[in-house]
Amino acid sequence: MMGIAANRTLHGQTGSLFRHGVASGDPLINRVILWTRVTPAVDEEVIPVEWTISRDASMSQIAQQGLTYTNAAFDYTVKVDVTRLDPGATYYYRFAVRGATSPIGRTKTLPLGGVSRLRLAVASCSNYPFGFFNAYRSMAERTDLDAVIHLGDYIYEYQNGQYGDGSSIGRIPDPDKETVTLADYRRRYAQYRADPDLQEAHRQNPWIIVYDDHESANDSWMDGAENHTESTEGAWAVRRAAALQAWNEWQPVREQPFLDSNIYRSFRFGNLADLTMLDTRLTGRSRQVAANSPAIADPNRSLLGPEQEGWFYKELSSSQSRGTRWRLVGQQTLMGQVLGADGTPFNPDQWDGYLASRLRFLQYLGSNAIGNVVVLTGDLHSSWGNEIAANPFGAGFAPQAVEFAGPGITSPAIEDAAQAAGLEAQLAATHPHVKYVNLLRRGYFLLDVDRERAQAEWYHARTLVERSAGMDLGRTMAVASGTNRLTAVAGASAVGRGPELAR
Q: CA–CA separation, 242 vs 217, rounded Å?
């Protein structure tokens, strides 16, 4: 671990051509995306970039190498979709520009055939001014992850003080204004990616990423957002396109046929688990309505849109037909019901605001005998273990899936400990399907999957006001195969020793 700590300063040097580090993502059985950004001293028309991928950490067993190019049109970001790789293999990679080399990154392809175990770190909601990214540092120091799943709110669009004030810890957003234009979003990503802890988390493992709302604007939907005013900020379509372009440039994601195309996609971890990643924000979401509106139940309103919803159901059926043990669903907003005292949804931006969409999903599971569905959720800045049913408030309800929701990396839910504890107790007394909730602490969760069970372990940061990898295990919960029921587990899963970390 000392090697990682020592490298954190080196890799964050502001004078480097590669000051934003390296990253990999969207792994498949035989390919993976490699990413970096070149920071030239002055604008250049074109910059040649060499890349190398090796089977060992010392970069002596070269598997492939090549040459690509970047320029200002791509904000000097670089992506290489490396093919002809071996399944389930760990690789190391780096970039070079005119003799200067990047840090060495580590990545991994997806396995093929029989798989006995899968370990994923699941993250969301990293707000720069709310504190240091210590949860990312904790992920980077793990040796046994297969991938990092990021469920959105990777950046936040606000100016300093609007949602988090980083003045006291030197974390003021750049630019210090709301991001609206392409140049704004690019600068915000550049600031985030200069953070040494986020860089290390990217450098050590492949990421599978979707966006949520703050990559564009708060509470976004297909044709607008709560935090967008056309009279002063221009057309939503222009801002949306700028946000998506910057996201595509700065993330290690495989390019879609069209820039404004769908980000939903799937990944297979052998015969153990299939992962579908959804877009509950921009692809097909209808506009949010008030919690007491009759339109909450309107079957014509949708969270996913008809095209994505149909694709999603086909993916679930194909997974079940192949005999894959688990179906993991990565998505942005809480699926489990959270109702106020008057019976209306606490937050209609969640699945509670799209009752027909959730009901269709559960009916499809039931009609097609699809089991072992585990929903992975971000957005709410808190830790949840939920059993999912059409009516979980009735006596003897039968859940059809489970949900693990993760806390924010830094974004808060409730910052007052007494208030958080009171609401947690209220939820425990009135929401029988909520088996675990922590509304106070920030961090991430680990998903450990084998043939018998899928287990979530919530890790919470001890501090956000200084850099530290110290984490506390908040709770461990598991669902046994074939049950759709959550049970508490004592302690954490056994840590396996994975391939050597990149140095």
A: 11
Cα 112 versus chain centre, distance: 23
Proportion of the chain above pLDDT 90, given as a percent: 92
Q: What average pLDDT does the segment 155-165 reach?
A: 98
Residues 6+ apart with CB under 8 A from 445: 121, 122, 383, 404, 406, 407, 456, 457, 458, 459
Inter-axis angle of helices 196-204 and 182-193, nearest 10: 80
For residue 328, how many C-alpha atoms fall within 13 Å in the half-sphere facing its CB? 32
Eight-state DSSP code of residue 481: T
Q: pTM (2 decimals)? A: 0.95
Sign of CA dihedral 468, 474, 479, 485: negative
What is the C-alpha separation between 11 and 17, in angstroms, rounded? 11
- Residue-wise pLDDT for 301-345, tens only, equals 999 999 999 999 999 999 999 999 999 999 999 999 999 989 999
Angle at 328 between CA 244 and CA 146, to 5 degrees: 80
pLDDT digits 0-9 by tens, 371-381: 999 999 999 99
Quick check: helix, strand or coil at residue 418?
Answer: helix
Distance CA(411)–CA(383), nearest Å, equals 12
